[in-house]
Amino acid sequence: MKLKTKIHLFSTLLMLVILTLTNVGIYFLFEKMAHRTEYNQLLTRSKELTTSLSKMTEQMDARTIIIAHIPSNGAIRIVDEKGRPKVTSLSEPELGQENFNINPKERYTIGNFDGAQTMAIRVPAIWTNGEVVHIEMVQILEELKESLGLLKFILLGVTVVAMIPITASSI
Predict the structure, then answer these.
(1) For residue 65, what is the enclosing H or E element?
(2) Are the CB atoms for 137 and 42 separated by under 8 Å?
């Protein structure tokens, strides 16, 4: 093999490796930022719910207040200190049968439900009788799954398009 051919082959492969590493970095950075955005939205909803619950009296129905704050494609559970549910409200009925293991040491927990990623958070709140409860909010990340799939397709297309002139120049 001629030196010129070796140089072109090496530079083409090096460029492919650089493009691949860059695209992998972009993908994981986007995924992390998307999770952070979803977390911030869930946290905002949970703070709004906590505020609404703090204004609630014994005569008010907690389920009505929770329904107003339920995320689309998600669920809200209010559990006591022992983990027993006090109130549960679901936008997806199948979520009621799932047990989301929320890690209290992490800001959010990513799980899977019916082939899609879910994000779950847990925040403390004060119940009407002064008891400490936890608000568990779960959101199915269906849109995020679609966005990540589209991003994979775009990054693959960009890599192929970028490699065409690089490969053509070495011929």
Answers:
(1) helix 62-69
(2) yes
**What DSSP letter does each residue of 76-138 carry, written as one string?**
EEEE-TTS-EEEEEESSGGGGG------TTSS-EEEEETTEEEEEEEEEEE-TTS-EEEEEEE
pLDDT of residue 51 exceeding 70, the answer is yes
Reported pTM: 0.82
Q: How does pLDDT run across 83-137, given as a tens digit for each residue?
A: 788 787 777 776 666 677 777 778 888 888 787 888 889 898 888 778 888 888 8
Q: How many whole angstroms separate alpha carbon 126 and alpha carbon 141?
A: 28
Residue 125 identity? A
Q: Can you read off the two tokens belonging to residue 3?
A: 């030196």
Rounded CA gap, 70 and 91, in Å? 7
Residue 30 clears pLDDT 70, i.e. is over it: yes
Please count the other Cβ atoms lying within 10 Å of the Cβ belonging to residue 56. 14
The tokens for 149 are 């799939």
β-pair partners for 85: 79
H or E element in which residue 74 lies:
strand 74-79
